[in-house]
Specification:
mainly beta, 4-stranded mixed beta sheet, single chain, 53% strand, 5-stranded mixed beta sheet, 9 strands, globular
């Protein structure tokens, strides 16, 4: 990682991403996901909101993780705003597997 980059550790379990509300400074972000559940999960960083009806745009992805697995992705520079972290496997997002990321 470069100076000014930040790291975010996520725990994935059945229908929950922890932490749920995250705030980080603008810039690049290294997202590390740990699947602590019994199902497969992934993580997508998206621009947009769940309830706005607008199209969400996927910015970065950690592909499907088996139970017990971990992986990381380094995002491009993130501008201030509101982002989503979701698991898009099956219908996990609609079951509540989403978190809010505020970039300030």
């Amino acid at each position: 990682m470069r100076t000014g980059d930040h790291e975010l550790d996520l725990t994935l379990a059945e229908y929950r991403i922890a932490p749920q509300a995250i705030s980080v400074p603008a810039g690049r972000l290294r997202i590390v996901a740990h699947n602590r559940g019994i199902l497969t999960h992934n993580v997508e960083l998206e621009r947009g909101t769940l309830d706005s009806g607008e199209e969400r745009i996927v910015l970065s992805t950690i592909h499907t993780l088996l139970p017990g697995a971990s992986a990381a992705v380094l995002t491009g520079p993130l501008a201030p705003g509101r982002y989503l972290l979701v698991s898009s496997v099956g219908n996990q997002t609609t079951l509540g597997m989403a978190a809010t990321l505020i970039v300030r």
